[in-house]
Amino acid sequence: MSGTVIRRKRRKLKSEINVVPYIDVMLVLLIIFMVTAPLLTLSVDVKLPSSTALATADSSEPYVVVAYPDGRYGLSLPGASQPEILADDALMQRLAAMRNQQGSELRIMVAADGAAPYQRVIDAMGVLRNAGISNVTLISDAGGNAR
């Protein structure tokens, strides 16, 4: 009896990679991206002008609507030294008449004093929208950091 030899089978090593955990991670990432992708596409369409030329001074002076901190509006016409002070309704009627006279090519710039709350600028743009003017530009001061 002592002559019996017990032989163990040697297990063969597997040289395969278990990919099941990787598939689980990829499926979770796929679900996350599918959920977040529609949220990332919310945007506002902005119509930007295109040009190959450098910025130069325009030959015609623009019309400028000035929003003052105390709630008044000013309309600066080309060639005028001081803006004309107008109320909301008077400004809207004047701008609507100018739009009817010049058509859709009428450019209006909105300026405001640095001490004016931004709500005044938004209100000025609302008056312009109510007057039917769509070509509006904001004027800003370059400040000390501009090159």
TrEMBL record:
Q: Which UniProt keywords apply?
A: Cell cycle, Cell division, Cell inner membrane, Cell membrane, Membrane, Transmembrane, Transmembrane helix
A cellular component annotation (GO) from this entry: plasma membrane
Membrane-traversing stretches: 21-42
Q: How does it sit in the membrane?
A: Single-pass membrane protein
Pfam families, A to Z: ExbD
Domain of life where this protein originates: Bacteria
Q: Which GO terms describe its molecular function?
A: transmembrane transporter activity
The UniProt function text for this chain reads: Part of the Tol-Pal system, which plays a role in outer membrane invagination during cell division and is important for maintaining outer membrane integrity.
Question: Assembly and partners?
Answer: The Tol-Pal system is composed of five core proteins: the inner membrane proteins TolA, TolQ and TolR, the periplasmic protein TolB and the outer membrane protein Pal. They form a network linking the inner and outer membranes and the peptidoglycan layer.
Query: What is the protein name stated in its UniProt record?
Result: Tol-Pal system protein TolR
Species name = Luteimonas aestuarii
